[in-house]
Each structure stands twice: as C-alpha cells, then as structure tokens.
Specification:
5-stranded parallel β-sheet; FAD/NAD(P)-binding domain; 505 residues; disordered C terminus; alpha/beta; disordered N terminus; binds 3-acetylpyridine adenine dinucleotide; 29% helix; 23 strands
Length: 505
C-alpha cells in the first residue's frame, strides 16, 4: 500500500508474533518503504498456529486458494484443503520472498508493554527492552492450550499431550489411544489415528454437526495452468472467497437459505452412519453452526471402524491406567490426546499492558473483552490488534480479515508519518456505541441459539463479527481520525482508576 506524500518521520513499529498476521504486517510496512520495524516472536521459528499444531490429520478447512495472501497467491496448492505442513511451508516461503528474516527476533516473548511519553516501552521475558511508536499485536486467537480440569490428569502412566503440543516421539502403532474432545482438532485426528491404533476411543462431551468436505487433490497440469495464468489463479481466489463468504456470512443468521443448506448437508452426512445407536449418539441437540462448524469427509467412516469406539458416558477421572467413567468403567489406555481446545481471545495472548495513565489491559476489559472496530482500544494509543475482538472468526479466512485490518493500520501509520499526530487512541464513547451495535446484532445470530462454544465470552455474548465479510471491509475502509483522541504528550505512571475520565483519554 502506498504511503502518503510529504513524509516527515518514520515510525518505529513493533509487531508481537511472527505468525500469519505478523508476517503480513511486516510485508505491508516493507511495501510502504518502512524498514524500521521489528517482529518479536516468542518461539524459535515462525508460523504461529501452523508451527504449533502438527497433529496427524491437521488441515485447514478453509480452501487453500482462499486461505492465501491475496498478493501472493500460490498456484501450487496440492489439495483443495491443504495439510498443515504445506501451509507452514507457504508462510515460510512468503517470509523469505519478502526478506522478513532480518526483522524477526526469535525467542522474544514480550512480558510488559507500557505507554509512556507517546511511546510503547517493551520488555521481553529475557530482560531485553525496546521502544516503539506503534505497537501491533499479531498474537493470534487460539493459542493457549486448554488443559482440562479432570481429576488425576497428572497420574496417568502413559503419554498424555494436547493436540497443539503433539509428542512425535510417542509410538502410536498398535497402541490403545484415547482422544478427549470433538472439536475440529479432535475430529480431524480420528481418521489417521484409527489407521494405526489397536483400539481408539473418542470421549465425546457434546456431539458436533459435521459438514461433508470433499478434498480433491490438484493435478500437476492444473497447478501448471494456474502458474502460467495468474489471472485464472486470482479468479480461483476470488471465487472461493465469494462462495465461502456467501455461505459463512449468511449461515450465521438464524434464518436464510444458507442455514438450510448447511443443516441439510450435515444431516445427510450424519445419515451415512449405519448403526442407528451410534448415529443417535453422534446427533447434536443444538443447531448446526451454533458451535464453530466442523468439516470432514473422513470422520464418520473412521468412527464406524471396528477398532474405534465413541464414548459418551461422562469422564470421572484419569488414573494411572487410563480414563475412568462416571459409570465406574475403566478404559485402559497407552496414550491420551487432549483435543480440548484453547483459551480463546487476544486477551489470553497479550503481555501485561499499561496504556494512558497506567490503565492496565485487565482494567480496560474488566467488564468483558471488546475493541474499537476489531483492532484498537481506547486509552491504548498507537496500539493495534490483528484478529482482535469482534473481527470475523470461525468459518472465515482469517488471512482476508488480517489484510483488511493491516490496510487500515497502514492508513493510520501514513497519517502518523505526515505528522498529523504523535499518539492517538479511539474515543471511549464511539467505541461503546459501536460495540453496543455489534453486541445487539451478535445476539441475534445462530451462536446464541443454545450451545456452549469458544465464540462466547464470560457474559455469554459472541465476540465475533455478526455481519458479512463485505460489511467488515466496509467497516474498516476509511480511517476515521475524528473517532480518535490525541494522547497526552506526557503521561504519569499511575493514576487512581476513579480519576480516569469516562470520555476520551
Ligand atoms: O477445540 P474446541 P479444537 N471433558 O474448543 C471438549 C480451530 N481449528 O482445538 O463441546 C471432556 O472446538 C469440548 O467439549 P464441549 C477452529 O476454529 C481449525 O478442536 O465443550 N471434553 C470440545 O468437544 C476450531 O473451532 C482447524 O462439550 C472436553 C473439545 O474438547 C478451534 O480451532 C482445525 C473437556 C474442544 O473443542 C478449536 O478447535 C483445528 C473436558 N473437561 C482447529 N474440555 C481448521 O481446519 C473440553 N472438552 C482451520
């Protein structure tokens, strides 16, 4: 994106995280001729979600031609829905192509971020300090594994690990394996595990609607055609985007043809289960799409195999030998896989942060997590969150979401460079108004139709964009500086919370 003329200064930008959105932010800055940025990555390599998750069966259920940067489409995708390793390679390739390595500092987890005198003062866990004019969180949404609070979990004698911390040293062939959880991760891993386990048990607390997902591979000829015809490749990208957004955006409304279509497809898929008793166990008692939709063509065939059992009796505890059910039955296991999900939300990933006058992020979100237009926060000047609260999540391409957000942030940076301001944050009253509208609309979506899911905050409100992808792009199309306040030129370190203005800074 081009940056405005009459540039007066270049900002120092710090990006937290070298996953999909952090790399994207770095590329946007480079495109604008800004080299004064650093990406602080907590781990030893890049890739975020696709670095952390390596479980058998991992793939992305958003079509690969859509789950790609729009400015660096990949004609070489091997399948419609590619596997995790291929996606990680794509991100590594893009990082190399845009020469991001000199900007990334690995093993630098930001511990503290404090806004003082119009700048962000950062401290990493290893004690290094840095200063930034603009701070961007690219820490992702689903990152912190949720280890379930099951009694005796530490007493198991075999191997036990979370899907996002897969222990590849553990032999699976011929083992008795238990998988706890039936979200996307738990469902995806069942088919490959069923091919190696002597006995596989899946522990289901809540049944899932599962949409059929054919996943044809692309032939060499197909890849070469897309390589030679970039316009066709672009058409593919937009075709998938339009189709996917039309389905996902429309299906979250409580009525509409998309909902009917998804319901019918899920029901059709469920009816492929031959044993009526198993079919009933697998039948959810809530509407499809209330939870994040799971998609798979392989799950129902796998769960019907002779060496696979679906366990629906509640878990009582984990013992040295395996999983004991509330019925008293002990299921003896060699390996337990926790497919129990993540603590969702950017708030779980952020460091300790202090904005204007010592306002902490915990205080800012004491009544629930929110944001200004999905990416900024009152009293936290020059701070942006990629994939922040109320951005479209779930069955959308988060790459497309992050592109919309980085375009917006670049407009803010362009104004900064022109010297329009030194530090600004969104106004409290505007943020509240926008969030009231979002919350009201989110309460009318299928997410509130009677299920528990990671979309909901502690108040039971969905923290996700309740409208279409097009409306989201429209929402962030223009930078509205009139919706921002200037940060004070100097800030005191602390201030009594009661003295904080309810309006502005
Ligand atoms: O996690 P989840 P996930 N005892 O939270 C169960 C993305 N993703 O890692 O439903 C027993 O969905 C819990 O039960 P319940 C995608 O956005 C994308 O699978 O709460 N069970 C549930 O069944 C997805 O939505 C891809 O009753 C317990 C499961 O664990 C998100 O990541 C691939 C339990 C958790 O399901 C998270 O998916 C994979 C307990 N104590 C993931 N605690 C793509 O393809 C929890 N559960 C893009």
């Amino acid at each position: 994106m081009a940056v405005a003329t009459s540039i007066t200064r270049s900002p120092k930008v710090c990006i937290m995280g070298a996953g999909m959105s952090g790399l994207l932010m770095g590329i946007r800055l480079k495109e604008a001729g800004i080299d004064s940025f650093t990406i602080l990555e907590k781990a030893a390599s890049l890739g975020g979600t696709w670095r952390e998750n390596t479980y058998p069966g991992l793939s992305c259920d958003v079509p690969s031609h859509y789950y790609s940067y729009s400015f660096d489409l990949n004609p070489q995708w091997s399948r419609t829905f590619s596997g995790g390793a291929e996606i990680l390679e794509y991100f590594k390739g893009v990082a190399e192509k845009y020469n991001l390595s000199p900007h990334i500092k690995f093993n630098k987890k930001v511990k503290n971020a404090k806004f003082l005198n119009e700048q962000w003062h950062l401290e990493t866990e290893d004690g290094e300090t840095d200063v930034a004019d603009i701070l961007v969180s690219a820490c992702g949404i689903l990152h912190t594994p949720k280890i379930p609070d099951i009694a005796g979990i530490d007493s198991f004698n075999g191997a036990l690990f979370h899907t996002s911390q897969w222990d590849h040293n553990v032999e699976l062939k011929g083992q008795r394996i238990g998988v706890i959880g039936t979200g996307s991760s738990g469902i995806q891993t069942i088919a490959p595990l069923s091919n190696v386990a002597s006995q596989l048990y899946q522990f289901q607390r809540t049944a899932q609607w599962i949409m059929p997902l054919p996943n044809p591979g692309y032939s060499r000829i197909h890849q070469q055609i897309l390589q030679r015809l970039p316009l066709l490749n672009r058409l593919y990208h937009h075709g998938f985007r339009i189709g996917f957004e039309l389905l996902s955006g429309g299906a979250i409304k409580k009525a509409g043809w998309q909902r009917k279509l998804v319901n019918r497809a899920c029901l059709y898929n469920l009816n492929s289960v031959k044993d009526p008793a198993l079919r009933e166990k697998l039948r959810p008692n809530y509407q499809a799409l209330c939870k994040r939709l799971v998609m798979s063509n392989e799950y129902y065939p796998a769960i019907q195999k002779e060496n696979v059992a679906l366990v629906t009796d509640p878990i009582d505890c984990i013992t040295a030998e395996g999983v004991r059910l509330k019925t008293g039955e002990l299921i003896e296991l060699d390996v337990i896989v926790l497919a129990t999900g993540f603590y969702p939300g950017v708030d779980k990933q952020l460091p300790h942060m202090e904005g204007v006058n010592g306002m902490t992020i915990e205080e800012a979100w004491s009544n629930g997590v929110d944001s200004y237009r999905s990416l900024a926060l009152p009293r936290f000047p020059n701070f942006f969150m990629l994939l922040g609260p109320y951005c479209p999540i779930g069955n959308f391409s988060v790459i497309s979401v992050a592109e919309t957000q980085t375009d917006y942030i670049m407009k803010f940076i362009a104004e900064y460079m022109k010297g329009s301001f030194k530090a600004m944050s969104p106004k409290v009253e505007i943020t509240n108004q926008l969030n009231d509208q979002l919350k009201a609309a989110a309460r009318t979506t299928v997410w509130t139709s009677g299920c528990q899911s990671w979309y909901l905050d502690r108040n039971g409100d969905p923290i996700s964009w309740p409208w279409s992808g097009r409306q989201f792009r429209q929402h962030l199309k223009e930078l509205r500086l009139e919706e921002f306040d200037f940060a004070p030129a100097t800030s005191t370190e602390t201030e009594e919370p009661s003295k904080r203005s309810a309006v502005g800074l």
